[in-house]
Amino acid sequence: MRHILIVFGDQLSLDLASLRSGDRASDGVLMMEVAAEARTVNHHKKKLALLFSAMRHFIDDLTKDGWQTDYVSLDAPDNSGDFNGEIRRAVARHNPSRLVFVEPGEWRVLEMIKALAADLDIPVDILPDDRFLCSRDAFARWADGRRELRMEYFYRDMRRQTGLLMEGEKPAGGRWNFDAENRKPAQDDLFMPALKTFKPDAITRDVLEMVDQRFPDHFGTLAGFGYAVTRADAEACLDHFINHALPSFGDYQDAMLKGQPHLYHSLLSPYLNIGLLDPMDVCRRAEVAYLGGHTPLNAVEGFIRQIIGWREYVRGIYWLKMPEYEGLNALKATRKLPDFYWTADTDMACLKEVIGQTLEHGYAHHIQRLMITGNFAMLAGVDPRAVHEWYLGVYVDAFEWVEMPNTIGMSQFADGGIMASKPYAASANYISRMSDYCENCRYRADVKTGNGACPFNALYWDFLDRNRDVLAKNPRLRNPYATWGRMSVEKRDDYLRTAQAFLERLDGGSQKETEAAA
Ligand code: FAD
Ligand code: DLZ
């Protein structure tokens, strides 16, 4: 091999910059399954299976496409177990004159490549990942000199840059954002489209067996694995979403319903993040659905905003702020992550539902991640690093560039407000309004303190009281702090005592909150 083009597991795009730069006649592609990556955090078994199977299908596509390929499987006899070792072994095998990477999605991996480059005596190219619409440099230029890095303004620039939903210089429909129409709670008589799933083929069956044997202690279950592992199947998921779910995506984007993990969400994030789908193609397809007149603008705008807005923005934040970002802890939260995050063994119905579906599918939609598991961890004062490691492991779509800002920044406010203008903190009232989780919960959303009260209620006020020094000056929290200030001393004490008792039981590590609240 003249040049080795190294393709990581989340770079499964046929038009990847390195492949475009290479020459099939003389260059070769290296892909590696390595145990060290599987063990960085407690990855969901379905996530491991999805990645390894998609990687194996992708290398087959490249081989059929005429590339020389070198694929190191996890159980290859001499697999050294990490990227560094495997790249060095490949260099020894093929004696290339150059290595070519596309910039990886993780700061740690980029550092590894830089260290390797400094140590090898052949040139190493690191090409920009142009599957993203906003390059790292362009984001840094956008951020430069701004007092606040608010997504909404970034998003408008991305609309102008891409031309998506633009009518000349103006946004389609006369507004940039239709979120005001997008906050309907779901009713259980809605018709929810079933998710498109795929029967495992021989490659996937081998991978399922390997993951089952090699990672028996990892989070989640492999049962019912039905994720797409090829571009064609991911495209079929996109078609299915556009035709059946997108029209209601906006209306019920924030809603949560028992037994309905997806509602009208797309579940396209794993495919976008590993490269089976291209973000701009996905957005164009959604735009066509609007222009064709069969999908409302509030749905299409909301969906496109998630991709050219949030997705690009969080990547920009990640690269702008790493490596300091992962250590941020603005609220000095130190509590251990409760054990029930790994088991769903809690009697708080909302957490049980969301963690339960996470164990089963490796999926929860945005509001579930933000307002149930994220909200609880922040209110309870859990160490943001532990929360980050949980999210990075348990979701099939989790890669650090996208997971970390969403967790450290948006959901835990550990970055002190770089991403969010206020913490996404909510009491039971929000959960009961936006979901049906509270209906048969043993805790009551409308009971504020004492036995039987939903823990979110006292935790909410305890959180504000505990973090007064950092949060009270935030203008967007003026109202809740004013409400807290107007409460009688007895009422405030009651809240704080209820929260304290709950947190002590939580720290006890058992499910004692159950018995005590009975
Ligand atoms: P849809 O609701 O159908 O949205 C469409 C697409 O928009 C998604 O597929 C995704 O690509 C993009 N998108 C939506 N919201 C965001 C966002 N906030 N940031 C980036 N992209 C977004 N998303 C990940 O892809 N990987 C993660 O590891 C991840 N971790 C998260 C952790 C926390 C604490 C929170 C609050 C959010 C996280 N998100 C993450 C963002 C979001 O929850 C998921 O992208 C979304 O739930 C994926 O499901 P979906 O494909 O059905 O999304
Ligand atoms: C997450 C992951 C896992 C579990 N395994 C591999 C692997 O064996 N080979 C690979 O190329 N990538 C893997 N990944 C993704 C990487 O951890 C990392 O997120 C990406 O390489 C981006 O830098």
TrEMBL record:
Cross-referenced InterPro entries, in alphabetical order?
Crypto/Photolyase_FAD-like_sf, PhrB-like, Rossmann-like_a/b/a_fold, UV-DNA_repair_photolyase
Q: What is the lineage of its organism?
A: Bacteria, Pseudomonadati, Pseudomonadota, Alphaproteobacteria, Kordiimonadales
Quote the protein name from its UniProt record. Cryptochrome/photolyase family protein
Q: Which domain of life is it from?
A: Bacteria
Protein's organism: Kordiimonas lipolytica
**Which Gene3D superfamilies is this protein grouped with?**
1.25.40.80, Deoxyribodipyrimidine photolyase-related, DNA Cyclobutane Dipyrimidine Photolyase, subunit A, domain 3, HUPs
